[in-house]
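Narrative of accomplishments. A recurring question from our advisory board has been how the design workflow behaves on a single, concrete structure rather than in aggregate. To address it, we present the structure tokens for one chain from the evaluation set, followed by the sequence designed for it. No filtering or post-editing was applied between the two.
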């Protein structure tokens, strides 16, 4: 045997993956959580935690190529954990974990800065976006130039659980055009900016899920301090709940949830016959459309696929018709008399108006059948409307009663197919349906398994799903932050993104706007120590809840970290209202983080003042010595002030560094 061949064989054996060293006859063997794998990033200059399972009483030895070693003994339950010191940033390194019988070798390990990224869709949204509507600015160029072996991300696979889990599915990926397209865009641009300034490896653990509220990400211990959630957590933690849910869904065929638009387009839900005009829907139930449908069907709060059908009489066939149903959250296929006339399938179409041409050749005088299959993949399921049928001569409203049939349901990240069968939903035991919006289930499935992996801090982008519950959020969100810190047992920095301006109020009546109240709850959460907030009022999109400018979001998150945690001389954020003084008929507003100085972009607009009756009027505003002076001839004795107090707010107050001030309301 040649020396080169012998060396290659030794190298191959040494670097075999861990299963090569496992005894297949053993029922218990050395195992690590998925976080500990090739390409991972460990926090520099820290005692990082390792943990896993093995046979009780076995000795575990961890050895590193930076010449550090730690040992521990497996407890009687088969669990072990150990800390090991890390050096200053660098790599790549190798780590060996050995027990009495087995060995695991981890390769290409970097030492640097590790951050946990979490939240809902604006954190989940990948660099490739969800075309055609939900896109990232300059995505193709950003992906093409993303090769960087020192930026890495671990995407936690989605899972819900009624009990805290010990492990997640996922793997560390190295930044490259092939991998970066699936990275969280907000988190990637955060990591990119950190690397640019620090020149050390950056690791991101991305655990996010679109359309989810803060209570889903909070542990039972903390949630149970909120009376409004107690009945839910008590119900989902009864011993029979999970068993009953699994028993129900086990009757039906399960398929994976599509992850690409092509897979959504080719999705077969065993429901093809429903499109036919002759299909008998006499036993279907009725529903009022347009509006939310997910909370009206099968006990409410489901994700899945549902057919809607409506018969309409047409007497005039002189011309083609236009069918309008408005936006469908999330996707649709639409048929008339068995002929497909349109549909938008795939993620990213949830807010796009549906308007389809109906050729007169497929219509008949008398009864005609419209069939719409809507899929609610996550969050709210809704047909916005208005729903109309029109041609050159007439316009008919389709609002009102429609028939519906639930044909597939999403449960624990799988599609369960009911098909066209008549399912006796009354036989289903009434329980709290487990979905990503249920309190505690995402903490249990996607956060608890990460504890106590050593992190520098957390970046968070969430809040849209809590709009309308601002008073609750103002207590819940800080409680969640404290909850996570308690689990990790240290007060890591927690930086979050304030929700962006958007038409959250579907009625488009400004008197019903509520998102400014949620933004205020987020601003008030800055009272929680070691936190920071990114304001997005200048980069939102009134017509899309997912801002395309994730570059500035990531950069602004990085500003907070660089200034507060890495001693970089940089202005951390935009101006934050910090109180006011009453001087005669004027109010003088004070701000933190004025940067070099306060400025206005265009006229200084959006400020309102009120007297004791709290009836607000727009105020004249001007900047004087990094303060804002407000007055109005209509209010002689002003006491209160507010700024940008509506859904679709346009900011006018910035610091010289170009960072916008947050909206606020002062009524103390």
């Amino acid at each position: 045997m040649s020396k080169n061949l012998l060396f290659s064989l030794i190298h191959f054996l040494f670097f075999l993956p861990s299963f090569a060293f496992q005894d297949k006859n053993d029922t218990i063997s050395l195992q690590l959580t998925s976080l500990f794998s090739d390409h991972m990033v460990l926090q520099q200059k820290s005692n990082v935690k390792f943990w896993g399972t093995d046979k009780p009483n076995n000795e575990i030895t961890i050895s590193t190529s930076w010449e550090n070693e730690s040992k521990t003994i497996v407890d009687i339950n088969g669990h072990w954990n150990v800390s090991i010191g890390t050096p200053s940033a660098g790599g790549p390194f190798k780590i060996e974990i050995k027990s009495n019988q087995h060995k695991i070798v981890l390769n290409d390990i970097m030492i640097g800065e590790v951050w946990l990224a979490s939240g809902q869709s604006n954190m989940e949204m990948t660099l490739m976006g969800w075309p055609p509507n939900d896109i990232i600015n300059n995505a193709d160029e950003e992906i093409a130039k993303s090769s960087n072996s020192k930026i890495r991300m671990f995407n936690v696979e989605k899972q819900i659980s009624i009990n805290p889990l010990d492990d997640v599915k996922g793997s560390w990926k190295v930044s490259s055009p092939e991998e970066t397209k699936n990275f969280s865009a907000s988190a990637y641009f955060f990591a990119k900016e950190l690397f640019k300034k620090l020149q050390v490896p950056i690791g991101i653990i991305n655990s996010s899920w679109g359309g989810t509220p803060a209570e889903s990400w909070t542990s039972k211990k903390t949630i149970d301090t909120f009376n409004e959630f107690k009945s839910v957590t008590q119900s989902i933690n009864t011993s029979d709940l999970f068993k009953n849910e699994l028993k129900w869904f086990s009757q039906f065929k399960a398929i994976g949830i599509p992850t690409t638009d092509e897979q959504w387009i080719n999705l077969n839900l065993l429901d093809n016959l429903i499109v036919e005009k002759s299909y008998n829907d006499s036993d279907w139930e009725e529903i009022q459309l347009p509006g939310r449908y997910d909370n009206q069907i099968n006990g409410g709060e489901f994700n899945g696929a549902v057919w809607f059908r409506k018969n309409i009489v047409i007497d005039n066939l002189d011309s083609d018709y236009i069918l309008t149903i408005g936006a469908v959250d999330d996707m649709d296929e639409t048929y008339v008399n068995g002929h497909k006339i349109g549909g938008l399938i795939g993620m990213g179409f949830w807010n796009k108006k549906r308007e389809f041409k109906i050729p007169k050749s497929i219509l008949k005088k008398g009864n005609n059948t419209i069939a719409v299959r809507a899929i609610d993949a996550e969050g709210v399921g809704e047909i916005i409307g208005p729903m109309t049928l029109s041609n050159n001569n007439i316009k008919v409203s389709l609002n009102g009663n429609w028939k519906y049939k639930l044909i597939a349901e999403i449960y624990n990240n799988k599609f369960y197919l009911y098909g066209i069968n008549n399912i006796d939903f009354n036989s289903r035991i009434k329980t709290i349906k487990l979905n990503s919006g249920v309190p505690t289930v995402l903490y249990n499935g996607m956060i608890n398994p990460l504890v106590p992996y050593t992190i520098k801090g957390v970046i968070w982008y969430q809040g849209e799903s809590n709009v309308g519950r601002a008073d609750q959020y103002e207590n819940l969100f800080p409680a969640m932050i404290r909850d996570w810190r308690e689990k990790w047992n240290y007060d890591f920095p927690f930086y979050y993104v304030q929700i962006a301006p958007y038409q959250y109020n579907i009625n488009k009546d400004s008197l019903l706007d509520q998102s400014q109240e949620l933004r205020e709850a987020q601003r008030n959460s800055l009272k929680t120590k070691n936190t920071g907030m990114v304001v997005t009022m200048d980069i939102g999109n009134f017509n899309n809840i997912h801002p395309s400018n994730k570059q500035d979001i990531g950069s602004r998150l990085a500003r907070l970290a660089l200034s507060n945690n890495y001693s970089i001389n940089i202005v951390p954020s935009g101006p934050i209202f910090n109180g006011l003084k009453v001087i005669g008929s004027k109010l003088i507003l004070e701000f933190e983080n004025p940067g070099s100085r306060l400025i206005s972009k265009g006229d200084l607009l959006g400020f309102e003042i009120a007297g004791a009756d709290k009836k607000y009027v727009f105020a004249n505003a001007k900047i004087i010595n990094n303060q804002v002076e407000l007055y109005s001839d209509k209010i002689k004795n002003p006491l209160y002030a507010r700024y940008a107090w509506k859904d679709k707010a346009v900011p006018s107050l910035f610091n010289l560094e170009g960072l916008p001030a947050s909206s606020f309301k002062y009524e103390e």
